[in-house]
Write a structure and sequence with these properties.
- It is a single chain.
- This protein is of the alpha/beta class.
- Strand 4, helix 13 and strand 5 form a beta-alpha-beta unit.
Amino acid sequence: MNNNFSDFSRYGKSFQEGLVQLIFEDRPFADQIIEVLDINFLELHYLRIFVEKVINYRTKYSRHPSVQAMSTILNTEIEGEEEIIKKQVRDFFRRIHTHEVLDVEFIKEQSVDFCRKQTLKKAMIESVGLLQTCSFDEISETINKALKLGSENNFGYDYLADFDKRFEPKIRNPVSTGWSEIDVITKGGLGRNELGVVIAPTGAGKSMVLVHLGTQALLEGKTVVHYTLELQDTVIASRYDSCLTGFPLTNITDFKEEIYEKVKDLQGGLIVKEYPTKSASTNTIRSHLSRLVKKGVEPGMIIIDYGDLLKPVIVRKEKRNELESIYEEMRALSAEFNCPVWTASQTNRSGLNAEVVTMEQISEAFNKCFVADFIFSVSRTIEDKQANTGKVFVAKNRNGPDGMVYPIKMDTSNVNIKVLEKNNIEAVQAAFNPVALSVAEQKELLKQKYSNYRKQKGNS
């Protein structure tokens, strides 16, 4: 091999497969790296063939290939290759439909940097020959061109160039709530890159609900990272014990051996991290999560109990603006670590004894939770607490309908929470007395709350 030539071999097979998958799936990144990519940089022959087909399609049709187009190409245009190579190319194409690239930014940064350096090296070698003829302008042009190639050129989603992308199925990988009624309207639960918020008055059981949601993720084999800003970590862990096994919290220590036998074979993992109230910010949590990832712990769900008790990253004049920023930052965590984030918030005073916590009681919370993907409230009157009952109101749902009220059974003695079938329309309207609102009117009122919020935001 020429001493002046390098390839991606030192990065390994996984890196190269991830790079090629990104070239196919991420059109703006393909635009950037193809300017400086020599397919011979790829060590593996089947990856060179795959990328070559992508580049040829883009050159011929001036657009990025769709999944359907690539499938046809790989079935018709590689017949001249050896059988083992054809199998490797097609197997790779099948794998990327179910495989998610990890360390995306690292792969992009390293590969572009490598290719740009190789391109610049080639330009400098060419310039040596130009020195013989004193073509300084040509030398300058050659070097400058090499420096410009492969630079950031992602100008956003291109309506026509990315036409096929918006018709591809979105992979949310939702984590079940454990409540079939809620899973139906959320299309399986809260998905990755999504923020869910539980809203309730003080003492209504927000933390219990969060433990229930974390338990469902554990049962699905996810690693749950639960941040507690109010209760001790051992208290939270004991609630998980009770929720997982059904043993009562009041004398949970009496069942130590039985609990261990039931939880020792869990496929999921649980890490409970305690911070004093208002001592941790979203940056604190981000740093902790990053350290976990470096140790090989991949969060499958993040729970923050609860967001209102986080310290703001930036101190603002008005508390509502601080809280809004905190909730925006929590949603950013869900995108950064590619998993759902659940948190809780408290209603205003009028929600304390409300039959159903509606838009009126959570108007303040909407200022904080405007960026959330799913919001539901939990209301429990004194009578409800005595009867282990209550109501859930779905206030916001990006992935389906909202505005519904569901009765619940909630036994806090062993963190047993069940959402029952939603009430019929008469029962829903009765819950909103003295003014009975239809579902359409509820939605219209919610839209009006959003509109008022935007106006407030615009004037602040």
